[in-house]
## 1
Amino acid sequence: MNIGIPKEIFPQEKRVALIPPSIDRLVKKGFEVTVEKNLGETIGLTDADYEKAGALVADREKILSSSDIVLRLRKPPEEEIAKLKKNSLHVSFLDPFNETKLIDAFAQNQISAVSMEMIPRSTIAQKMDALSSQANLAGYVAVILAAERINKILPMMMTPAGTIAPARVFVIGAGVAGLQAIATAKRLGARVEAFDTRPVVEEQVQSLGAKFIKIDLGETGQTKDGYAKALTPEQIQKQREGMAKICANADIVITTAQLFGRKAPLILTKDIVTQMKPGSVIVDMAVESGGNVEGSQPDQEVDIQGVRIIGLTNLPGRVAVHASQMYSSNLVNFLETFWDTETKQLSLNLEDSILQGCLITHHGQIVNETIKRLRESSE
């Protein structure tokens, strides 16, 4: 089977879908791999690096029309779907909850589409969970950005000129991104506090050396996939009131709260922001899905009464080398899971729990139950 990797065309995207070591693994399994010319130039890789790993280099049109499997990072432009080989497999992030026309185009053109953000959060699928691998890096980047923007140092220092107190960092949300943000801030010497609506993560927060903030919100919890459940308006108001005092004392606040497939909840109102100290910094990691902070703007840094709100998007793309390495590994692990070494074919067993979660279209139909129910409820 032939795998094709076209270049990413999303503006300012530096990550790539596959790197040479991953291609070497696939070629040894029996795949043929073709990459678009200059695929890896954004992370310092040449066509010769890919060819040395066993890949062929071709133009974009040939890759789209002749590949049995197309691997990308970002969702494709809708006009390219009709150019794909019939009955081929397309794997990338797809945002299937919001990209209705894109999903319809896959079905209409007989393309089997896998959405990488729909990989189940289960033990067996952990090695292919691209959403988590990229969120992990985003949590690290968020702290580094905040540390660079703030006009203080993070660690405590005892010097002949006096003692400098450690900066106070407050992380809202202790999922994959939040836990990495906590760990990174602690490594830099900050005093870290964290809050999450799921009491089950308290032990994880404490194991990283941070203080877990408890706010009584009544009945909360997490979904079967480990995501925080949506709060009621009353719970959201209680949460804001409980966090206001902590934010007022913080030097850095990092918000990570997102609801899978839905708009991010507004956590920090402008009233809370204006109570913070001038010179403090907020990083809104949910800005791409609506934002956790009132006033944050995608790809902008906004100043509200001396408080800087950083709303930069694509945080994993700021460490594109390692983000590409991790995503590439996720893709290879996915393909290897369903590769039959005897027949040299990809075996898509629709009864498999992983495929039931991430396969969106197959044989001209929308087969994902979550997306089908969403369509039915909106009709």
## 2
Amino acid sequence: MKLTDFQALTFDVYGTLIDWETGMVNALKPLTDRVPHPLTRDQILEAHARHESTQQRQAPHQHYQSLLATVYRRLAEGWGVAVSWSECLAYGRSVRDWPAFPDSADALQYLKQHFKLVVLSNVDNDSFSHSNAKLAVEFDAVYTAEDMGSYKPSDRNFEYLLATIGDIGIHKHQILHTAESLFHDMEPANRHGLTCCHIYRRHDQQGFGATMNPATRPICQFRFNSMAELAGAVRAELTAG
């Protein structure tokens, strides 16, 4: 099996292309600076993952910016800090400021020459539009949680992908699902029989950061530590012929 056997790369965005962990930690500083006891970066991210996952499961139709505002309030309650709802809403809007990984835009621009690029993301359309500007590439299709009324790892999101991607001429066997999160992406992608490429952004860190621990160890046919490595592997295959 080769990377160039596939016709489309379907991407998780946040954690894979956008450095959401840095974005979260920076945007949470108005809250975490007021917590009476010190918090490590991973403690912040793991608490965020718990509240975000619970809220996504319990309120699958909630708009992502509103969902993040709720997460901010739950974090504040857990850490014993009083916050206003306007502060919570400001955090919900912070997605537009989350940075892209330094290699994302260049890698995507190269991969665009050889694959159709598709987004499958747990986000709202407005927030994604700001992130897309940082990625500097035109995706062939964009499927968001706002479109689907559910959040990964729900099977609904992958069912929607497979029911819709044919509109751009792509069939299931031509898809390489490319993501960082084993929990949000690789487990459900395995359930739906998709070939997987793990972008292991946290390869030099312990734990799962802003994602929940997966219940299983998903099968990933390809694994790279960055988007630059993925693009380099595609280039090497094409050069080798």
## 3
Amino acid sequence: MSTGEGPGYVDVDKHTMQHVRHPNVFSLGDAGSASNPKTGAAIRKQAPVVAEDVDSYLKNEQLGGMYHGYASCPLVVSDKKMLLAAFDYSLEMTPTFPTWLMDPSNQHRRYWHLTRYRLPFPYWNLMLEGIARHRRR
């Protein structure tokens, strides 16, 4: 999994996703140089930041959106069990779901079912279409 370091990435500020030399350019997801893992969960958190910051830039206002490096990586650990590693730039655990529901430090069959059966529909039909709602943390 690439973290976006090295040649070929759009050189952005990792919090605003704004290009470091060309202020009218923003980038996110796999194209940006932010040092987070390139995951769908990360871009889901980056997109609202970029939208807010582009709007602020066009209005000649100070950028207010901040991306903190959130990423969520499913890790298969056994037959039909997974961990869902979710963290930010500081490598602090930032659980995707409430810890009382699913402790992210333990493997769960529910994570496997979630990734296998529940997430494909919203990913392909809502997130990629720009319809999925975003929750700010």
## 4
Amino acid sequence: MASITTAASTDTARVLIAGNEPPTPASLDFAARLRRARLGLIVALVAIVMIFVSYSSAYVVRQGLPTLDPRTGTLVRDWLPLQLPNFLLINTLVLLISTLTMELARRHAVRVAVAARKAFEPSTRIESDRTPWLALTTVLGVSFLAGQWLVWRELAARGFYVDTSPSSSFFYLLTGMHGIHLLGGILALIAAGAASLFRKCAASSAVVVDATAWYWHFMAFLWVYILCLLEFAR
């Protein structure tokens, strides 16, 4: 969260101060919109963090709890160790690369918005030579979700389904919930790409891309956290 706030201050300063020029109403409006978008994003991320904190706590606690066997009437340990598929490493690399392309898209969008402000044309449209970073990030995000589907199929081939054991249930729950939230980021990427395609105001497009980029970075961090939880919290 601190990195988002710090980045917000940095980008706002860049927008408001170009050399020694005084800020214009257009730049102040862009900075205010950017700040509101990031504050709204922080609220949404806090809610997501709370969801995964509760899942993590349940995951750790459930490992040490026995369950009642209805056939024998005794308490048994039903937690089966789950070996993570190696393909998860490749999938993680894909997601990490997508954070790089997303950051490049964010910086490009902010530069376009600042250039429009310097020209004193707040309604300046996005130039036709748009960078492919948004499209590439979208492709990588979809590839990550497709990779997750392959991971689930590999686990199913091993005999680990959702209801096989608590360990497999938590794996599908954690990775599935992350996939759903990442899908939301992909939809936001498509919306940002549509704004660029239909030549929306540069400032409006920059706000959308900026918020989506920070959300995407958070999803990558959350994914690494989930992998560490599944691998080491035993």
